[in-house]
Amino acid sequence: MQILITGAAGFIGQLLAKELLNNPSYTVTLTDINEPPIPPGVTYPQNARTVTADLLKGGADAAVTPSLDAVYAFHGIMSSGSEANFDLGMRVNVDATRNLLEALRRTCPGVRVIYSSSQAVYGLPLPEVVDDTVIPTPQSSYGAEKIICETLINEYTRRGFITAFILRFPTISVRPGLPTAAASSFLSGMIREPLDGKECVIPVEVRSFKSWLCSPKTLVRNLIHTLSLPVDAPPSHIRQINVPGICVTVQEMMNALARVAGEDKLALLQEKEDPALKPILDSWPTRFDNSQAISLGFIRDSSFEQVVRDYQADLTQ
After folding, report:
1. DSSP one-letter code for 90
2. Fewest Cβ atoms closer than 10 Å to its Cβ: which of 46, 244, 286, 301?
């Protein structure tokens, strides 16, 4: 199976590429605005090629080939970055996606596209539990840009130009590496940084603040599962799937950190409310009915403590 990953230099792109390149069944093209690395230590590095391409400047044509079986669209500017620079967010998140869709339509019509959307498409008011009937009303530029792309992708699928699945991700935690421009970055940082002996600022002061989370390991399993979903699993014009997550409070995350790594790690956490981030964070849903996704074979994490234990184990490998 020949697969293209856009935004392949990013965390999720690298994580997925590593999994795919440990399986001889996959040939993977990695593309990003800067040359994406082939993940180190993979079993089949010869099955990868890298393409440096700017999707805003005709780069999609260099990455897209007629033999593609599937495309993972991960490129984009994250939430607080989009809010800080509206024009850049619209160009990278919307215009680049439209360019990619047009290249796929011309070169490999009908190809399977797996698009990374977000729970940020939702906004207040929200029911206690969000199900598939809740209409998205985003309260951030990032969420609005994702909804624009979702609408385009639904239309391209309805017309038969592509065969897409739109995955609305929970917040991914625990992400390795450096903090990002995402408003939710602290939800990884409050575990990652103390485990590295560093401080992390939590931009909310209410420990009952809830988040809808998914581990990197579970996300990758769900991404690969999407390759085998029946084409008609969702209707042709409603391709959105809310990826399963778990609801966790800041206090529960702190408790998990203490149980796994020791109470002393909590001293590295500072709680200081960020008035710029608060409206964005408060607009996100905190609990979903994932019946559709579970019925399609998607999975969820068992507990956040296990997520922290898995992350800690990965640090020692």
Report:
1. I
2. 46
Give the 3-state secondary structure of residue 40. coil
User: Where does residue 87 rank: exposed (0-12), middle (13-18), buried (19+ CB within 10 A)?
Assistant: exposed
Amino acid at 281: L
User: Is there a catalytic annotation at residue 122?
Assistant: no
Task: Specify the pLDDT at position 215.
Answer: 97
* Residue 271 CB neighbours (<10 A): 14
Q: Choose among 148, 306, 165, 164: nearest CA to 243.
A: 165
Spatial contact of 74 and 28, defined as CB atoms under 8 Å apart:
no
Q: Where do the domains of the chain lie, and which CATH numbers do they carry?
A: 2-170+215-242 (3.40.50.720), 186-212+246-286+302-315 (3.90.25.10)
Tell me the per-residue pLDDT of 106-146, one tens digit each, with 9 for 90 and over.
999 999 999 999 999 999 999 999 999 999 999 999 999 99
What are the start-end ranges of the H helices in the chain? 11-20, 60-63, 79-84, 86-89, 96-107, 141-158, 186-195, 216-226, 250-261, 278-282, 291-295, 304-315
Q: Which residue type does 114 have?
A: I
Taking alpha carbons only, the member of 118, 121, 29, 22 closest to residue 72 is 29
Average pLDDT score over residue span 72-91 = 91
The continuous run of DSSP H or E covering 110 comes out as none
Residue 79 confidence (pLDDT) = 78
Among residues 158, 95, 168, 108, the alpha carbon closest in space to that of 138 is found at: 168
pLDDT at residue 317 above 80?
Answer: no
Of the residues 115, 122, 142, 311, only one is catalytic, namely: 142
Crossing angle of helices 216-226 and 11-20, in 10° steps, is 60
The percent of residues in the chain predicted with pLDDT above 90, rounded, is: 89
